[in-house]
Amino acid sequence: MLTLKLITEETERVIKGLEKKHFNGAKEAIDEVLNVNQNRKATQQKLDATLAAQKQMAAKIGGFMKQGLKDEAEKAKAEVAEMKAESAKMQEELDKAEKQLTTLLCQIPNIPYDEVPEGTCAEDNWVVKSNLKECTLGEDTVGNWTCNPENNEAKLPHWELAKKYNLIDFDLGVKITGAGFPVYIGKGAQLQRALINFFLEEAREAGYTEIMPPTVVNAASGYGTGQLPDKEGQMYHCEVDDLYLIPTAEVPVTNIYRDVIIDEKDLPMKNCAYTQCFRREAGSYGKDVRGLNRLHEFSKIEIVRIDTPEHSKESHKEMLEHVEGLLKKLELPYRILRLCGGDQSFTSAICYDFEVYSEAQGRWLEVSSVSNFDTYQANRLKCRYRKAADKKIELCHTLNGSALALPRIVAAILENNQTPEGILVPKALQKFMGCEVIK
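-> structure tokens emitted (439 positions)
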């Protein structure tokens, strides 16, 4: 959440940032925060003064008793009792104000960086890079991109290819669990494992420490990274134990650093994790949910960084280069988008999406989001670092990104690499697959 220091010292910048993110009632929300905080501080000052007076009066009681001034001692005791009652009442008001303040702050999203473009929806995002020109055969258009120029047949969508080569059984998943829970079979399961191993190996070589976290978390963890209370309806909730199935490894991995103070010399912290991810995806329908396009359970490798404010933008750049490197090695057509203010997540300060092109579906498929959250998550997590120069304790910056989510990568590989002889396996995966073609 936004810090009170930022809101009080840079009020206008915060309001403008919220308006850029198209947060309704930005000024009213900030004014309410400032008003509650002012009342909270006034109550705290009164409480501190009353407690100090109470302490002084209590110290006098012993003196009165030693001097035999019983009436004065009794009077002092009565005053102390009255001040205690008054202090308890003020403490109750203070606790209520602090709770109200936290609730208000949790309802306010992060503000975007200056370089985030204006806009309200996905159509306003900026395409900052594409490799289509490198991949194109002929004109520089999406439709001319192909891995195999000898293949002139019409492209089949991945759900038909999965059935043709017995790679994924969507109907069996419905039988066992429900829609959005596919069953991977034979080479389909092997392709999943190959991608997981490839992504983890690339992450380790890039200096990320692999973590194997739990795939269920408590409410405090969901709150720390901003999934709660904002995305509660999208998470699977185990009500008896009050635990949540993770929507991404970002949640458990980032929460490793909750209530932790890190020495500056140890930053940036770089972690990666492979997990299953679970999302209810309520409200999704139509072509967006066909095949692997949108699932309730899927595999993903996440990269997470904890860094200093001074170095976090460089970390973000390195993460973007890492994800782009994966797509290059998989020989997939991709583009990178800088999200506009209105299309950013609740918690991010800046976000880039990576999309791969599905030739059979004739559309772009999002496969990664790489975000810098500034201090927004760290403030919730109380994730801090100790500066080397003056030993001061400051909030860290947190960053994360998918590197990568598997379902749409699988869809793109199947659709873009199909030939009459089978599915061509990208060279980067052949050592993990043990074959060059899926037949």
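The longest helix spans residues 26-66.
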